[in-house]
Amino acid sequence: MAPAVAALSHLAATEIYAFHDLLHQKLFLLDGRKFAVQLGSNRYAPDTDKHFSVDDFLYSRCAVVANGRTFYESVLQNPKRMPKEFTFESILYLPEKAWKLKTGRDDYDYSPDTWCETFSNSEGWPG
């Protein structure tokens, strides 16, 4: 993550915020049942007593984004390509770390317009 943090820290504050917004938008679009049922051991299985970790699903969606545009778009088109046992939580902290490197301060308090937590995308979770 260090190279990404360094690159982002060289941008203006408004561009760090724009990156944060874009990250959340991409994660939001992957927030849906059709993606969650494709996970490996943490797959969404509503008709069972199996525990579903909303955090793990978010981190799996982060892995999709972190793997680049081509992979991201392929998963959007074909949810079966969703990573089964792979997560990448650290991308969530990229804007905050870039801000700290840029300013030397721990006061990053930007909130993206789009919420990316699991179950935020009501269109992705019909019923």
Key descriptive features of the protein:
single chain, 127 residues, mainly alpha, elongated
What's the short story on this structure?
The chain is mostly helical and 127 residues long. The chain has helices spanning 2-9, 13-29, 33-36, 54-66, 69-77, 94-103. It has 6 helices and no strands.
Q: How would you portray this structure in words?
A:
The protein is mainly α and about 130 residues long. It has one domain. About 50% of the residues lie in helices and about 0% in strands. The chain is built from six helices and no strands. α1 crosses α6 and α2 packs antiparallel against α6. It is elongated and about 50 Å long. The mean pLDDT is about 95.
Instruction: Give the distance, in angstroms, between the N- and C-terminal Cα atoms.
Output: 38 Å
**Which overall shape is indicated by the principal axes computed on the Cα atoms?**
elongated
Number of helices: 6
What about the largest sheet?
none
Q: How many independent structural domains?
A: 1
Tell me what portion of residues adopts beta-strand conformation. Answer: under 5%
What do the pLDDT scores average to? 97
The beta-strand count equals: 0
**N-to-C order of helices and strands:** HHHHHH
Radius of gyration: 15 Å
